[in-house]
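Handout, page 2. Input:
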Amino acid sequence: MISIKTYESYVRKANFFEFIGAKRKAINVMKEAVNQSFSKLDLGSGYIYIGLMYKELKELSLAIQYFETALDLCKTEQYPFSPIYKKILECFIKNDESAKALNWHTHLLERASYDKKFLKLKKMNLT
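Output:
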């Protein structure tokens, strides 16, 4: 068996499984990735990937666990804005986790100090 060396290689492999409709296999690949010694940003990205897969499988509680792990892990890192953060916040709301949504919404808005695109989240209705 060939060992995967880079975070990008894990993502490519997971994307392939996702593309063919094997979301659980994609999740397993990324669970393997987040157990490697990659950067916090790569690991956070991996946790978000897993969360998004669980969200698509309508397993919101699991999705939220992975989203929170990613956000907690990268709390002190500078990362660029992505529209995925809106999906994450919506997932919290959909799973009746309004307090968590509000907490992370505030946290993400504070990131506008280095990336103004985070202000796009300002107009979200979190109730």
